[in-house]
Amino acid sequence: MKFPREAGPDGTHGPFEAANVAAAVIDAKGTVIGWTGAAERLLGYGAAEVLDRSATALLASPEDASQAAGVAEECETRESWGGLVGARHRDGHRVEVGLRVTAMSDTDDRKAWLVSAIDLSKAPTWAVSGEVLEGFLTRSPLGMAVLSPDLRYVWMNDTLERYGGVPRDQRLGRRMSESLPGLNTDALEAQMRRVLETGKPVVDFEYRGWTWADPHQEHAYSTSFFRLDDPEGNPLGVCYMGMDVTDRWRARERLALLSEASARIGGTLNVMETAQELADFSVPRLADFVAVDLLETVLHGDEPGSGPAGSEYLVRRAGQQSIHVGCPESVIATGDSIGAPRASPYFETMANGTAVLEPFLDPVTAPWIAEDPPRARSIAKFGMHSAMWVPLSVRGTVLGVASFIRMEHPQPFEEDDLVLAEELVSRAAVWVENARRYTREHASALALQRSLLPQGLSGGTAMEVASRYLPTDAREGVGGDWFDVIQLSGARVALVVGDVVGHGLNAAATMGRLRTAVQTLADMDLPPDELLAHLDDLVIRLTEENGGDDEPIATAVLGATCLYAVYDPVTQLCTMARAGHPPPAVVSPGGKVTFPDLPSGPPLGLGSLPFESAEISLPEGSLIALYTDGLIESSDQDIDVGLSRLSDVLAQSGLPLEDLCSAVVNNLLTGPQTDDVALLLARPHALGADRVASWDLPTDPAIVASARELAVRQLIGWGLDDLAMTTELVVSELVTNAIRHGTAPVRLRMIRHDKLICEVSDASNTSPRMGHARTTDEGGRGLFLVAQLTRRWGTRYTQAGKIIWAEQDLPGRKGHGGGS
Predict the structure, then answer these.
(1) Which of 533, 539, 519, 541 shows the shortest CA–CA distance to 612?
(2) Rg of the Cα trace of the chain?
(3) Which of 149, 576, 644, 781 has its CA 20 to 30 A from that of 806?
(4) SS3 for 613?
(5) How far apart, in whole angstroms, are the C-alpha atoms of residue 756 and residue 724?
(6) How would DSSP label each residue in 467-518?
(7) What pLDDT does residue 393 have?
(8) If 0-12 CB within 10 Å is exposed, 13-18 middle and 19+ buried, where does residue 775 land?
(9) Measured distance CA(723)–CA(710) in Å, rounded
């Protein structure tokens, strides 16, 4: 493009005329040995001030001096050099000049350099034509251009022409938006207008886009803008310099991608969900379709390679994602097993633990594709053209394979893509391994806890029961909530619910120890307050034993809570005591729900306060609910709100117990659980007078025969004639013991429910003991015979004395052999 040649005030034709080009000669040592008048006009120094001095004194800054040193080195191997540099005017201000350095030699072959310079700030818009700026700037490694005040190209160098991919003659005289449709030209022109308006340069403005030079690959550029002014400070145009920073941008993008992946993947501690998160995250950031396949053993939480022989390559699809809804290109559904040809890169990755890059999927060069017809059809149908297979491995052990496929993305995978995929998958493998380990521990803890919880609850004919146990969510793990129903002597039933601090195996193991202890103490027929006192002593001892060696166990035991209740179907009274546990809910036959104000004992292991019992009446038609705090308390609900909601649901007491259990859980657990939940519902049933018979007996040994007659007569009335002979012997031995070793009054009671119970009470606190008589002894075999002939026997103590009891199975019911 040609521009008019307007003469300047001094008769020349602008700063690019030869007469106005400053020139100097510098010898091989960098000393100025020649100086022109134009150079004096440019920098203000006379010849006497610069001759025989180092040329670096004329530079504006150390950075310019460093650049000049690089120019000198380059000139050793090249005949000339052109570029921009900052010079220092005599009055101290900086002058931006364009340089051309050309080699010279005299007759003695002594080297020197001719340096030509122009003041770029004095170049009028029309004067920035091709000839002079071409000579100074065309070979710069930076893309450079000068635009007029209306933002039309006036000049550009070769580098910028290559960046855009549009020939120079199609851009000069035009605006960016007219010649570079692939770039965000609005943002670039907005920056240049700001520079023209304010005069303030813009440095390192980054933008991205596609150009004609590389239409299939997005590039990033860093551009700086500065204004060109005339001597009076009026803007003549804007100059910009740009460089391709795609590699830097991609490196930064990779770091950002990996950082984002850390926040988006691996937060669930679930193997399948973690695999799906990897697939979701990678599409479309890295690929158009991603599949994540894991070993079956990993999905089950087991160690890789721990399965049966030949299972080392049994894998399943754990997650997949596509740019197409529903992943139609996948020939495997999530959860299905995977099969792949032995010659495929997939199998190679699984077997060797090394990533494989196939930039171009071509059946001609990849014969394994033909060995897998379903995949071959999918590859052809959806245009899969590039693939990567990357192993998920941890500490050298392969957990599975992630497959990355491109279809609509035009660029094939490159080595940089493989490096990014390997880094992403290696991190995901750690998250999968964490999830696998958690799955295994969680399953083990849950199995342990379920094995420690009662497998079948029964309250006999005295009580109908139903229960629910819900472990907490996967993040928190299994806790130590537990419950139990224990059949006691005298047709009584004990209800227990407890909560151990914490989650996981330690909490589950601690729960098992406490449940076993409660069953043992309950077998001793201790009152609720005494049982909790003994349990408290046990917890204190366990805490002291484990406090130094196993702090998690000590923490789990200390602070555990428990509620213990004993219901007597004969008296219809329930005696309860609690150790830091929420009170039970009691529903009257009329449907009114109350929470008895039981004495609140301290949690187990503190040993600071005694435990107290309270007694309430549970008539026929009542309901009692025992629960742990996870049911009524959560992060978004305090305990009072939970109790109110529980009360509303339990008011529907006419529902079957199983349905009522479900209703409680569904209405109270409306959000994610933060704690285990245990719920035990019990509907007591009274034993009527027709099932209980009792007699007061005098302390006369002759009354034993009468007691036998009374018992047999009652058995006949109940239709239990088959038990008459055994019952006569049991009654005879128990009454004889009470008369001989006890204290009046003596009382015989018989109870018929799902077992036949014979009880003899007296006012003493003596402790009967089963003896083993020698062959020569005439006595001492009474309790031994009772133990052999009955299901079980024992002693319990009351405020009035003691009771010796024995149970027999009813005819047609299976029971234990003899012995207690």
Answers:
(1) 533
(2) 47
(3) 576
(4) coil
(5) 11
(6) EEEE---TTT--B--EEEEEE-GGG-EEEEEEE-SSBSHHHHHHHHHHHHHH
(7) 92
(8) exposed
(9) 14
Q: Which residue type, as a one-letter code, is found at position 273? A: E
Q: How far apart are the first and last CA of the chain?
A: 115
CB 32 within 8 A of CB 52: yes
Beta strand segments in 258-324, E? 289-295, 315-322
- Helix (H) or strand (E) segment spanning residue 300: none
Helical packing angle, 415-452 and 246-264, nearest 10°: 10
Q: Phi first, then psi: what are they for 5, rounded to 5°?
A: -110, 90
Cα atoms in the Cβ-side hemisphere of radius 13 Å centred on 141: 2
Nearest to 728 by CA among 811, 806, 815: 806
Q: Determine which helix (DSSP H) or strand (DSSP E) holds 140, and give its type and residue range.
A: none
Query: Tell me: the pLDDT tens digits for 423-480?
Result: 999 999 999 998 888 888 777 777 776 777 777 788 788 899 999 988 775 455 566 7
For every residue of 96-122, DSSP letters joined together read EEEEEEEEEE-TT--EEEEEEEEEGGG
Tell the burial category of 217 from Cβ atoms under 10 Å away from its Cβ (0-12, 13-18, 19+).
exposed
Say how far apart CA 681 and CA 685 lie, in whole Å.
13
In whole angstroms, what is the distance from residue 729 CA to residue 740 CA?
16
92: left (phi over 0), alpha (psi -120 to 50) or beta: left
* pTM of the shown model: 0.56
Beta strands per DSSP E along 350-412: 356-358, 386-394, 397-406
Determine the residue type at 755: K
Residue with tokens 């696998």: 436
Cα–Cα distance between 588 and 653 in angstroms, integer? 9
* Of residues 90, 115, 416, the one with CA closest to residue 252: 416
The contacts of residue 582 (CB under 8 Å, 6+ apart) are: 563, 627, 628, 629, 632, 639
Question: Which of the pair, 669 or 103, is modelled with greater confidence?
Answer: 669
Token digits of residue 115: 């340096």
| Angle at which helices 782-789 and 724-741 cross, to 10° | 150
Element (H, E) at 170: none
Helices (H) and strands (E) in the chain, counts: 22, 31
Which residues neighbour 224 within 8 Å (Cβ) at sequence distance 6 or greater?
201, 202, 203, 204, 205, 240, 241, 242
Q: Which among 770, 733, 769 is positioned nearest to 748, based on CA atoms? A: 733
In 10 A of CB 635, how many CB atoms? 9
Pairing of strands 235-244, 143-147: antiparallel
Beta bridge partners of 240: 145, 225
Residue linked to tokens 């994540």: 292
Query: CA separation (Å) from 107 to 112, 288, 556?
Result: 12, 69, 99
Tokens of 253: 């993008």
Q: Residue 241, Cα to own-chain centre: how many angstroms?
A: 47
In sequence order, what E strands does 395-438 have? 397-406
Residue 424 tokens, joined: 């992403």
Token pair 């077992």 is at which residue? Answer: 755
Residue pLDDT, tens place only, 240-259: 888 877 777 777 777 778 88
- pLDDT higher for 379 or 5? 379
Amino acid at 641: V
One-letter amino acid for residue 512 of the chain? G
Nearest to 413 by CA among 367, 356, 375, 370: 356
The residue with tokens 């002759």 is 702
